[in-house]
Amino acid sequence: MVKNRILKLIGSFIGMALGAVIAAFAIEEFLVPCTILDGGVVGIGIMINNLTGIPLSILTIILNIPFLIIGTKKMGKMFIVKSVYSMAIFSLSLEIFANFVNATSDYLLAVCFGGVILGIGVGLVIRFGGCLDGTETVAILMNKRFKFPVGQTVLIFNIIIFSVAGFIFGADRAMYSLLTYFITSKILDVVESGLEKTKAAMIITDDSKDISEEIYKRLGRTVTIMQGEGLVSGNKTVLYCVLTRFEIHELKEIIKDVDSSAFIAISDVSEIIGNHVKKSGVLKNKKEETKENIKNENKDQNIKNDIKTKPSETAD
After folding, report:
1. Which of 16, 38, 185, 264 has its CA 20 to 30 A from that of 120?
2. What are the residues whose beta carbons fall under 8 Å from the beta carbon of 144, sequence distance 6 or more?
3. What's the rounded Cα separation, in Å, for the pair 147 and 193?
4. Which of 267, 202, 266, 199 is nearest to 237 (CA)?
5. What one-character DSSP code corresponds to residue 268?
6. What angle do CA 149, 151, 157 make, to 5 degrees?
7. CA of 311: how far to CAs of 273, 295, 302, 305, 306, in Å?
8. Cβ 202 vs Cβ 77: under 8 Å
9. Which residues lie closer than 8 Å to 112 by C-beta, 6 or more apart?
10. Cα Rg for the chain, rounded, in angstroms?
11. Is the pLDDT of residue 121 over 70?
C-alpha cells in the first residue's frame, strides 16, 4: 500500500514536470515571439518582458512568490510543494526554450497551436495536483471565503490583463490573446475536468463520519448525509458534496486516507443556488448540541433505571 502511494506520488511529479515543460514550450516558441499573452502571472510577465527585457523565467518566479505566500497557510503543504516544483520546472524550461528558434511568426498559427499545446501542458500540471499560476491560488481562496466561482474569477483576472495589453501593444494583440485563452480552456476540458464547472461528489462508504469531518477540516466544505441500501452490500451511508475542480485531487486523497474501499462518483454541476459551504463553528455547535442531547438521554435513562430498581411500596 505504502509502495503504491510512493510510486503514484513519483508519477504525479513526473506528470507535472512534463506538463510544465510542454507549457513553457508553447509560450516561448509560439506566444512570446508574436507578443500574444497567456493569462494570469505569465501574461503579466510577458508584458514586463517586452517593456523591460527582463527574462520571462525570472519574472515568473518573482511574480508568483506573493501568491504562494498567501496560499501557504490555506491550501495545504502538498499543494504548495507541488506548485513550487511545477513553477520551478516551468521557469527553467522557459529559460531553455528562450534560446531555441521560434516555431512560427504567423499569428494565426501561434494562436491555434500555442493555445492547444499550452492547454495540454497546463492541464497535465493541474491533473497531477500542481499549479503554474498564482492567480489560480487566489481564485481558490476567494471561492472558499466569498463563494466566487473559481473559473469566473480567473476569467476576470485575465480580461483585465488582456485589456491592459490592448492599451500597450494594440487591440489586435489583446484579441489574439483572448482567443488563445479560449482555445487553452477548451483543451483543458479534454485533458482535465472543465475549468469553469463546479463538481459534485457522491461517496458511498461505511466511514461517513470520519470522511465528512476530514472534508470539512481540509476543504472547508460540508456534506449532505443520506442513508442508502445496496442490493448486495446492504445498508450504506451516502455523502453528497459540492466542490471545485481544484479540490477533486484533495478529495481523492481524503478518501484514500480514510476509506480506500469507498465508492465515489464525480459529476459536473451546471448551476448552484444557495450556500453549499458552512461557516466555521457550525459543525462545532452541531457536535456540542449532539453531545448535549446524548447526555440528556443518558440522564433520563439513569432516572428510569433508578425508578425500576426501587422496591415497590405497599399500604399496610
Report:
1. 264
2. 74, 220, 277
3. 20
4. 202
5. E
6. 100
7. 61, 27, 16, 12, 10
8. no
9. 183
10. 26
11. yes
**Contact criterion met (CB below 8 Å) for 59 and 154:** no
Residue 185 neighbours by CB under 8 Å, 6+ apart: 119, 195, 196
Tell me the domains of the chain and their CATH numbers. 2-191 (no CATH), 198-269 (3.30.70.120)
Map grid coordinates 528558434 to a residue: 101
pLDDT in tens, 178-216: 899 888 888 876 776 544 467 888 888 888 888 888 888
Checking if the pLDDT of 124 tops 70, the result is: yes
Q: What is the pLDDT of residues 216-266, one digit of tens each?
A: 888 878 888 888 877 777 788 888 888 877 788 888 888 888 887 788 888
Q: Point out which residues pair with 224 in neighbouring strands.
A: 240
Please report the pLDDT score of residue 19 as a whole number: 93
Q: Which three cell numbers stand for residue 189?
A: 476540458
Q: Which pTM does this prediction carry?
A: 0.63
Q: DSSP readout, 26-90?
A: HIIIIIGGGTPPPSHHHHHHHHHHHHH---HHHHHHHHHHHHHHHHHTTS-HHHHHHHHHHHHHH
The backbone region for 53, taken as left when phi is positive above 0, alpha when psi lies in -120 to 50, beta otherwise, is left
Cα distance between residue 48 and residue 35, in whole Å:
11
Residue 282 confidence (pLDDT): 47
How many residues does the structure list for the chain? Answer: 316
The one-character DSSP state at 194 is -
